[in-house]
Amino acid sequence: MIQGIRGIRSCSMENPTFEEIRYISLYSPYIRPCCELMRGTFHECSPKKHEPAIGDICKMWCSKPVFQLQTYCDIIKICTFRPLLFVPHDPSKKCHDPSCQFDELNMEKLCQIEILEDITELVKKFADDQLFISGILTTETDLEKGILRTSEVLEWMKYADHIGILQKLRKLADYCCWSILKLFFSAYKHYISKVTLEDYNLVEAFESYYCDNCMMNSENMKKRGNEAFAKEKFDTAVTFYTKAIELWPENHFLYGNRALCFLRIGQYRKALCDGKRAIILKPCWPKGHYRFCDALSFLGEHRKALEANERGQDQCRENPEGLKGLLEQHEKLKNQMEEARGIKQNKHRLKKQLSQKNSSEYVSFGNQESKKETKNQKLCDSHHHPCQQKQTNVSYKSMY
């Protein structure tokens, strides 16, 4: 059975925050007994070899075929996100707070998740690069000893020549930045070590994470959710999809379906989170990107929606049919952004016109007052001293 990283205690929270990552196990604190039994039949490993130097571990890892390493990276990525997005619900715990069942993403937390997503995608590109992998192992070894070498981490990032990630990291508060990196380094060192030192079959272990019975029951719940959706009973559909997710938390179809329901009932932040879950589980699935972009658009994040759509097109380029839908959405998002920009410009123009009108009226009013004063002056001149004396008195008062 997969074991948690030593030195990190498990956390019972179902929606952990990034500040609390250091207290969270990489793996779900709750495992169904049936799934536990299933995993035990697959997770037999060879006795752990004497741990060699980091350089030797890198050589063993990088000697494997690239396609196999990239498959490992896809799995490790999902395992890294497990404590954040894919924690199964423990049926023994009663929770009346809906937020404990459905995550909502704001833009700040979304930024943090996307940074972690970018870093995990980066590893896939450098999966067979010994220097890059060595940086991961060395950094986590230091972190386990309580040593944080910021300069080395930055150099490791620069080696990948990904300035975008560095810029995003600089925008985050320190505790968020290092919490994300700690979670990343812990997961990757753990699995790289298991694969190389214990002959651990990562693919088999991942595929056996949930038992056949749970997955079958999950499919039944999904069908009932589909039936409710067809009848436009979206709240009921959400309930069934949620039950299906509890049984099989890493099925991307379930999050795509539930995201669509959330969009229909106006729960856009929940739809945003489910869309992102679907993308992380299956980056080449167009509908996950489509739901995610729709949620951003409904939240008024038109530019970000457009950027996310373009990223989705890149990841789904080998799916022509799905790509067609994303291209159509791209045009729609462009039009929405232009409309939003037009509305903003019109508001600015109206505000400017109103300001000019008020200024013009003020000048006009001032001219009328000036004419009135001139007329009064002439009237005073015709009556000589009474009015002149009155004006003199006022003049003295204003001086003080």
From TrEMBL:
Q: Which SUPFAM superfamilies match?
A: TPR-like
Ranges for region Disordered: 345-386
All residue ranges annotated as the Serine/threonine-protein kinase BSK1-like TPR repeats domain in the record: 213-290
Locate the compositionally biased regions of type Basic residues.
345-354
What PROSITE patterns is this protein classified in?
TPR
| Annotated keywords | TPR repeat
Q: Matching Pfam families, A to Z?
A: TPR_BSK1_C
Q: Repeats (TPR): which ranges?
A: 218-251
Give the matching InterPro entries. Answer: TPR-like_helical_dom_sf, TPR_BSK1_C, TPR_rpt
Keyword Signal appears in the UniProt entry: no
Q: Tell me which domain of life the UniProt entry assigns to the organism this sequence originates from.
A: Eukaryota
Regions of biased composition (Basic and acidic residues) lie at 369-384
Residue ranges under compositional bias (Polar residues)?
A: 355-368
Q: What is this protein called?
A: Serine/threonine-protein kinase BSK1-like TPR repeats domain-containing protein
What organism is this sequence from?
A: Micrurus corallinus
